[in-house]
Each structure stands twice: as C-alpha cells, then as structure tokens.
Amino acid sequence: MRLSISKREKICEQILGLLFLTSPKPLFTFEIAKETARDEEFIKSLLINLKEKGLIKEIKKNSEGRVYLKRSRWVLSDQTYQIYKKKQNNSF
Predict the structure, then answer these.
(1) From its phi and psi, is residue 37 left (phi > 0), alpha (psi between -120 and 50) or beta?
(2) Does pTM surpass 0.85?
(3) 20 found inside a domain
(4) pLDDT, tens only, 40-55
C-alpha cells in the first residue's frame, strides 16, 4: 500500500513535532515508530529523508562513545529546533 505525498509529509511533521517535544533527548527509531503507530522500516525511510534535507541529525554512538551497530538515535538539527521554538513562542 502506497501513501500519498501529502500523507507522508504529515507523518514527517508528526515526527518533527515529536522530536521537538522530547528535545534535547534523542529518540531511537523504534521509539518514534511506536509513538507514530507506524512500521519501523517505513519510519526509518522517512527519517533518512529528513536527514538528507538537513532537518534532523542521526546519532550513531552511545553516551560512552561506542558506535551502534544496528541502531540509530535521532534529534532535531539546531536550525530546525530554533524554527520550531520560534513558532512555539509566536503561537501564544
């Protein structure tokens, strides 16, 4: 089943909103998939797309500096965070 571009964009907006709410704590792919009620592989493809656009950053190391072999954590890029923060302040 294919989703339309507009539905994919809405899911991406939902992902960005979730990352903003949990910022500065990065989330694993499975946590994002669980919160959005979507398949992990589908969410991973959207996350990679968002990363290529420069909206989010992928973290491949744990807090001790060891590289994850099969996992990734995701966080908003600094620029994206500032845009969301500005929009939050303007909405009140």
Answers:
(1) left
(2) yes
(3) yes
(4) 999 999 999 999 999 9
- How far is CA 87 from each of CA 15, 58, 82, rounded to the nearest angstrom? 16, 24, 9
Percent of the chain whose predicted confidence (pLDDT) is above 70: 97
32: number of Cβ within 10 Å: 22
User: For residues 92 and 88, what is the distance between their CA atoms, to the nearest angstrom?
Assistant: 7
Range of the domain at 81: 5-86
Query: Does residue 91 fall inside a structural domain?
Result: no
Confidence of residue 63 (pLDDT cuts 50, 70, 90): confident
The closest of 36, 39, 22, 11 to 73, measured between CA atoms, is: 22
Beta carbons of 76 and 57 less than 8 angstroms apart: yes
CATH number at residue 31: 1.10.10.10
